[in-house]
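Hey,
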Amino acid sequence: MHPLIYLLVITAYINISMNHCLIFGVTNGGIFRATGAHRIANHLRLQGWDCEVVDFIEYWSFDQIKELLLSRVNENTKFFGFSITFNLTKNEQLLLNLVNWAKEKWPNLKFISGGHSVPFFPAPFDYHIMSYAEFALDELLKWLFSNGVTPVFDPLLKKGNMEVINATVHLPSHPFPEAVIKYEPRDFMTPTDHGVIEFSRGCIFQCKFCNFPVLGVRGDYTRSAESVYEQMMFNYDNYGVQDYGVSDETFNDRTEKIAKFADVVEKLPWKPYFSAFIRADLLISRPRDREELLRLGLHAHLYGIESFNAQSLKYIGKGMAPDRLKEGLIDVRNYFKKHIGHRFRASINLIAGLPHETLETMEETCQWIHKNWLDQTVTCQPLRINKDDEPRPSIVDESYDTLGYVEMTPEEQYAAINSRDGEAWVHLEYGHFELLERNRIWKNEHMNWYQAVSYSAKINGGGKKFGNIEKVYPLHMPLVYSDKFGNILTTDEKLKLYGKKTREAEEGAKVYIQNYISKKLSL
């Protein structure tokens, strides 16, 4: 497209008579387009707002952010929004600097954040919306700028000066049958980008460790086939977007849902590539699902296995026998690799320290992974038991003491930190430091939190040795969504190339983000 034409297209999106806002995607360091930011932006545009999304904010420099804001804020700017994935950030200081500087520069602007709970870090925002936010945000903005009714703020959730709306209870945005995300020119989407798509909202299950906002959903609230087709064709025709990450909590909850959208995909002029959270026991027990997923193009799976211990699985609500689960995972992997080769990617997620889990059963899990799953991905994290101030506790949070968990004393923690297990904790680099103040440092009759961290480190690996802990799995590889970007292969024969491939992917990601930032600043 000619640069002048492109500028005119961009200008068409910036109507100076509209209310204006900026929404920043805070993804805790994840290199992906912020789902919540783009969903809210689409919703607000339908209400007549000029809403621009700023992705990858944690990778911007403070000077770059200031340059951007100075070029964007005008007399119609009303608020800055922050979509905070899992309530964490990898660059807390940058966000604090951004908000404090902007508040001083534009004292009349409002600062509104959103996420599935309240932020774990010190939050300098004016308002926060917990859970899916479309309808609650509508009410908040009408109150702030159009003399609307006062929203229901939860006094028990107030954090400092930040008022909180619990949108799970007040004006819930679920179900939300047409959660469309259409990108715009100033998003700078490219054919190598993965868009975000939502087929349905909420999870039909209620796992006892989970505190997601919408659980136990009953009924069919999936989007219409026409809406999905229109979204995908729009993003393809305008920006060449072909591949998508699915934001559904559990995509394969019903076979009919998979088939419905596989029918949509077969009408498209290209073959998309999807990644999604998949319930492994359903996939194993329903052979037709794998056929429909193959037809849909959902070739990257994230399995929330959590444990291979029978008693632990039964307790959390995932009752498939471990041996059948293991055999089924291998069978599913072989099925997809037979049909699509290395384009199949699967990642197992585990939780170390669930009720009934022991050091012995964790060791058995490590050995099974080493023997059977090195060509795919695995991640493990210690069980998190939130403290009493967690606004949306899980069943485990609420009943931890009756399950045999107690908090470690300072003396016990000091001894653990200076042990082999403590060494693993010191070197762990996947985001638990932000959680320590909110979590109980626990122990039970089988293990303590630091030992759970050690086994997480052992499973995730990293090419390092933690004390005497031997490496079982190479450095945790992010789920590869397609062979267009990154394409890290980890067969046994190619493990020695893993470090090089990872560095290449990381360097490519840095270049990609800086190109995005340069384009945003050039407007």
